[in-house]
Specification:
By secondary structure, the protein is of the alpha+beta class. Helices cover 27% and strands 32% of the residues. Keywords: Acyltransferase, Transferase. This is GNAT family N-acetyltransferase.
Length: 156
């Protein structure tokens, strides 16, 4: 997949919106419901956040963002990670995750957290391979299908 490029984009960029809607459809197919596709673009603007789209040529194939979850100590949260199914296992998700972790570390975050659903086995495998470990739920009211993970970030 040598044509893979990552672009930092506004969270309301048309390609970002397309991929987030695809994520919502994927979650509905897995669970019968999903978190709303809508997000606040202001939460994903540096220095408080970042949104990234992966492209193969000019085709958007994956996305993800991070934003400040907690200010003291600084913890960032990964949101809206998604790779189009036919492009999974080609490295886009890992590269996206690495870009977001780098941004969080450079921003001074000590930790990064995320959630994924128990049926999203590909994502769970990616997060575990990237060093994420299970943590207690950090979002109130989540159901038993949600899995929370965290990772301590290196000091930059």
């Amino acid at each position: 997949m040598n044509e893979l490029e990552l672009w930092n984009v506004p969270a309301d960029h048309p390609d970002a919106l397309y991929l987030v809607r695809e994520l919502e459809s994927y979650q509905v197919a897995l669970y019968g419901h999903a978190d709303p596709a809508a997000l606040d673009p202001a939460r994903f603007v540096p220095p408080v956040g970042l949104f990234v789209v992966a492209y193969h040529g000019d085709v958007p194939i994956a996305c993800g963002g991070c934003h400040v979850w907690q200010k003291e100590p600084l913890i960032m949260e990964i949101k809206k990670m998604f790779t189009v199914p036919m492009w999974r296992d080609h490295g886009a998700g890992r590269r996206l995750l690495s870009r977001l972790e780098g941004f969080a570390a450079e921003s001074g975050a000590q930790q990064i957290v995320l959630e994924s659903g128990e049926k999203n086995t590909e994502a769970l495998k990616l997060y575990r391979a990237a060093g994420y470990r299970p943590i207690s739920a950090y979002v109130a009211g989540r159901t038993s299908i949600n899995r929370a993970f965290g990772k301590v970030l290196p000091r930059k």
